[in-house]
């Protein structure tokens, strides 16, 4: 399956060069035909022009006929074929051949644009290993990556690319994760650390347990995202596609009338009437209009992919330039998502049980994937507190905390409002306010309706968060923070990154409702998140944006993925969107203006077929080249 995909990618890579070669060869045939015509070799000259028709027009004629049959609608490719054949019928072989040549050249240029966007996929595909060292019966056996199953153990040597997503169960090493996150500095990996397919094992041998099948790895999802982006058209492109079929029918209807009406109305000769109808068929064709959007969109998507910004479709890229507000999840987005325990407090009369309480709390929290829970478990580990306790049962109360039963006791871990007992028996109001003003989140511990301990945890703000917020504010976009923290903690984090508006004590199930309210107030709204509980809000927002290291649910729901986890990429994406929209508008205004000018010139008999061909196809090439500027 992978071999077929690679073969397909290889054919797609050479296709633009074949098409360009056909176009250029037709140009050589035209020059040869023109020279032969000057030497009075008319019959041979016409033969060369016919060859130019067939060779130069092959790709576009095939495309036009295939699209017409499949979609049951007319298109600009058929207009050009008809115009070229019409020119030949009235003896304008050279002009018709030139039309085919320039049309083929512009088509090859458009194919090249699409090929450039596919190169990002090809580059990614080449990073995916095809084989792995499977450990079977104590021996290392080389197998195809597709044969690996979840739970298999593989051996990865220094210098090799890791073939599948998994976790390290033996050994230590450094891993170059540039292919996934874009970070150039290798990351240390040890026992139980996650590793990703396509990344490079640098200096140590490791044994990895497979956690995902090859079809579901993060690396494969990146490839799928880029591939799908090509097939999802922007609203502008969808409009042009609908407009093209109607417009082509209108042009053919007008040309049909043009074949005889001017003879009776203006007294033109039949030859002149037919000639002007053919010129109209050429100059009124919407080739430049159709080519105004797709090459520019694909170039912009390719540009973004190269910079670690993956768009799932042109529609999301187009909309970004019109954003009015962006909501940010706090934990893991504005912050690193890896809080650390700054203080551990217990009720004064339970000081002797401090270590036992820590053990029980860690035993409960090890069942949770929440960053705060993981931080408490890490804290217990650093204190050499193992977690041997087996719980009777545990219940996750989403947005509030966890409830566990142990040895006949009811334990609760979570927010202040989740507690039944008096928290001031552990931490007084003044101390609590001070910690929260410093950006700490307080997690309370209750046993049998009595608060017995509390943890103060602080999440570190990402270095780039403040710059990202400043960039967005400079663009006139309102940043808003959503967090489950209380007012004091939320204010501390918001102040540190420069956000004015924030929504605190926001439960996961309420995030989607808050996004709806923000949309009503500001207009087009984006949401940036990384966790499973962000997925509903990402789906509710006009544009969902996920961090590359986020959960699968966030990656699948989002419309844009920031692979490098760099929030400053958001402003870059918006600039790219604005630039793309500006170029598309330039292309549309220019191409429509050229069509109007050429059509009017034809009615006044002030333009001939060669000049009409050059004006029409020249405008098509110019708008494609203008779109290609987005590759840089």
Automatic annotation (TrEMBL):
Question: Where does the record say this protein resides?
Answer: Cell membrane; Membrane
Q: Which Pfam families match?
A: E1-E2_ATPase, Hydrolase
Q: Does the keyword Ion transport apply?
A: yes
Q: Which organism is it from?
A: Caldifermentibacillus hisashii
Which residues are in the P-type ATPase A domain? 127-227
Q: Which UniProt keywords apply?
A: ATP-binding, Cell membrane, Ion transport, Magnesium, Membrane, Metal-binding, Nucleotide-binding, Phosphoprotein, Translocase, Transmembrane, Transmembrane helix, Transport
Transmembrane spans: 20-37, 43-61, 73-92, 98-115, 247-266, 278-301, 588-607
Q: What is its main location?
A: membrane
Q: Which SUPFAM superfamilies match?
A: Calcium ATPase, transduction domain A (SSF81653), Calcium ATPase, transmembrane domain M (SSF81665), HAD-like (SSF56784)
Its name, as the record gives it, is Heavy metal translocating P-type ATPase
Membrane topology note? Multi-pass membrane protein
Per the record, the similarity remark reads: Belongs to the cation transport ATPase (P-type) (TC 3.A.3) family. Type IB subfamily.
């Amino acid at each position: 399956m992978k071999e077929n995909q690679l073969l397909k990618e290889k054919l797609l890579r050479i296709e633009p060069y074949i098409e360009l070669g056909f176009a250029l060869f037709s140009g050589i045939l035209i020059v040869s035909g023109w020279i032969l015509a000057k030497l009075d070799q008319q019959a041979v000259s016409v033969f060369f022009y016919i060859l130019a028709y067939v060779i130069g027009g092959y790709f576009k004629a095939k495309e036009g006929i295939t699209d017409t049959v499949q979609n049951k609608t007319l298109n600009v490719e058929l207009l050009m074929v008809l115009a070229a054949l019409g020119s030949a019928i009235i003896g304008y072989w050279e002009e018709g051949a030139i039309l085919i040549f320039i049309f083929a050249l512009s088509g090859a240029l458009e194919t090249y644009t699409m090929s450039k966007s596919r190169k990002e996929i090809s580059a990614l595909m080449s990073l995916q290993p095809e084989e792995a060292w499977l450990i079977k019966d104590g021996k290392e056996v080389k197998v195809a990556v597709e044969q690996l199953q979840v739970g298999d153990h593989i051996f990865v040597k220094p210098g090799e690319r890791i073939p599948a997503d998994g976790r390290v169960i033996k050994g230590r090493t450094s891993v170059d994760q540039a292919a996934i996150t874009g970070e150039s500095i290798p990351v240390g990996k040890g026992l139980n650390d996650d590793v990703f397919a396509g990344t490079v094992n640098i200096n140590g041998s490791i044994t990895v347990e497979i956690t995902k099948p090859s079809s579901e790895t993060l690396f494969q999802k990146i490839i799928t995202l880029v591939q799908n982006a090509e097939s999802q058209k922007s609203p502008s492109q969808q409009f042009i596609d609908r407009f093209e079929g109607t417009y082509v029918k209108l042009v053919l209807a007008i040309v049909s009338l043009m074949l005889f009406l001017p003879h009776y109305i203006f007294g033109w000769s039949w030859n002149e009437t037919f000639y002007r109808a053919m010129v109209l068929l050429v100059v009124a064709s919407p080739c430049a209009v159709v080519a105004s959007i797709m090459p520019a969109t694909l170039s912009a998507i390719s540009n973004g992919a190269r910079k670690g910004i993956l768009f799932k479709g042109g529609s999301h890229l187009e909309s970004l330039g019109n954003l009015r507000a962006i909501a940010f999840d706090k934990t893991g987005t504005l912050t690193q998502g890896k809080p650390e325990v700054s203080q551990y407090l217990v009720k004064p009369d339970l000081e002797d049980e401090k270590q036992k309480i820590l053990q029980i709390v860690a035993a409960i929290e090890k069942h949770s994937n929440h960053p705060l829970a993981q931080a408490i478990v890490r804290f217990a580990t650093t204190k050499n507190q193992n977690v041997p306790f087996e719980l009777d049962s545990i219940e996750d109360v989403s947005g509030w905390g966890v409830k566990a039963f142990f040895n006949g006791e009811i334990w609760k871990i979570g927010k202040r409002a989740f507690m039944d007992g008096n928290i001031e028996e552990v931490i007084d109001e003044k101390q609590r306010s001070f910690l929260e003003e410093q950006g700490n989140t307080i997690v309370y511990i209750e046993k049998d309706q009595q608060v017995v301990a509390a943890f103060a945890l602080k999440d570190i703000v990402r270095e780039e968060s403040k710059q990202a917020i400043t960039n967005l504010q400079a663009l006139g976009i309102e940043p808003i923070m959503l967090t489950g923290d209380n007012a004091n903690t939320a204010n501390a984090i918001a102040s540190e990154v420069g956000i004015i508006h924030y929504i605190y004590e926001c439960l996961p199930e309420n995030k989607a409702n808050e996004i709806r309210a923000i949309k009503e107030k500001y207009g087009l709204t984006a949401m940036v998140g990384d966790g499973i509980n962000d997925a509903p809000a990402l789906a509710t927002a006009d544009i969902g944006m996920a961090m590359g290291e986020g959960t699968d649910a966030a990656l699948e729901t989002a419309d844009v993925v920031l692979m490098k986890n760099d929030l400053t990429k958001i402003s870059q994406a918006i600039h790219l969107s604005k630039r793309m929209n500006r170029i598309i508008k330039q292309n549309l205004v220019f191409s429509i203006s050229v069509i109007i000018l050429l059509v009017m010139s034809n009615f006044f008999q002030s333009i001939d077929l060669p000049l009409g061909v050059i004006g029409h196809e020249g405008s098509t090439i110019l708008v494609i080249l203008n779109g290609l500027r987005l590759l840089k």
